[in-house]
Specification:
Number of helices: 2
Number of strands: 14
Number of domains: 1
Low-confidence stretches: 3-9
Distance between the termini: 38 Å
Strand order of the largest sheet: 8-7-6-5-4-3-2-1-14-13-12-11-10-9
Helix content: 10-25%
Mean pLDDT: 87
Shape: globular
Order of helices and strands: HEEEEEEEEHEEEEEE
Length: 202
């Protein structure tokens, strides 16, 4: 938990220093989270631009009944890009107000240092596109590999037809993305309760 707090404070301090001299521009979208056709929560996407700095925030709240028990899930992540290069991120997941896992990533000397609740690792940079960015824009000409801040690993990115992509992780989990005019209009993910579908709020 100390690494998560450290990287969170570092990000906040960096944003404060830069915001003193930058023009603030923010975009916001909301997606409905659906399971078996029923809406169980919302996901909010926020992109803030401060000169050459881009901050991508994702926040979701979901409530489901599972084996006669209500489960509330909360997720928050923030990813920071500077001059088009991924710099740092952190993510936390909560279940019924208890943190279940987190991931904190920072860049240093051309490498990314990755700290999760159960492992430390690193990978080479620079990284110019991530799975968080896929929630905000279509991954055109990105290549066949994409980095996930959520899991701290690379995944395989495939485009099957215009506007449709899959992201497959090393453990076999597969995420489905669909875009129209460069904007995400549908996301389907595997979860403990089955396939979860996310679509924009009308």
């Amino acid at each position: 938990m100390h690494a998560y707090r450290f990287f969170g404070l570092l990000c906040i301090a960096s944003l404060w220093a830069i915001s003193l001299k930058a023009q603030n521009s923010t975009e916001k979208r909301t997606l409905k989270v659906k399971v078996f056709g029923s809406t169980v929560g919302e996901m909010t996407l926020r992109k803030t631009t401060l000169d050459a700095l881009e901050i991508f925030e994702v926040e979701s709240r979901v409530t489901v009944g599972f084996f006669m028990r209500k489960t509330e899930r909360y997720n928050f992540s923030r990813s920071t890009y500077l001059n088009g290069i991924f710099k740092e991120s952190y993510l936390k997941n909560e279940e019924n107000n208890l943190v279940t896992d987190y991931t904190a990533i920072s860049s240093q000397n051309g490498q990314y240092l990755i700290q999760t609740d159960n492992r430390r690792s690193q990978c080479d940079g620079p990284i110019t596109f991530t799975t968080t960015r896929m929630l905000f824009e279509e991954p055109v000409n990105v290549g066949s590999k994409i980095f996930s801040e959520f899991r701290g690993v690379y995944a395989t990115l495939n485009s099957h037809e215009p506007g449709r992509y899959t992201v497959r992780y090393p453990n076999g989990d597969t995420f489905y993305y669909r875009y129209q005019n460069g904007r995400l209009v549908e996301l389907e993910t595997p979860q403990f309760i089955g396939r979860v579908r996310m679509v924009p709020v009308e």
